[in-house]
Amino acid sequence: MKTTKHKKQQGFTLIELMIVVAVIGVLAAYAVPQYQTYVKKGAAGAAYATATALKTNVEDYIAVNGSFPATSAAINATPFSIGSITVASNAVSVEVTSGGGTGSKVVLNRSSAGAWSCNLTASAGVSINGC
Length: 131
Known about the structure:
- The chain has one helix at 14-65; strands at residues 83-88, 91-97, 105-110, 116-121.
- It is of the alpha+beta class.
- It has a four-stranded antiparallel β-sheet, with helices on one face.
- The longest helix has 52 residues, at 14-65.
- The chain is rod-shaped, with a radius of gyration of 27 Å.
- The relative contact order is 0.14.
């Protein structure tokens, strides 16, 4: 009497592999743009955080000296090398541009009355709470 053994399947068929590749392609088509938006939001948030840190220096200078700072060196802004500070007609403007080619720019303006306003220039779909 002959006995036959059935062989077990030892791999994937071509169609199964093609389905897996197609699913990965669909997921990547959705994930890559979402990741790019996430990176841009992070860069804009970093620019906003840096500009906000400089607000403290400006307020401290005004409280001690009773006037607006004349230069960025007057408020010890040297650790913040990614931004610029301009003073014109009793207003201080703190501008920080994010790195990485995202082009996000945060500008904080202080009026002579002491009110701060924020302006964010960023890529589409990027916003920051508080600005």
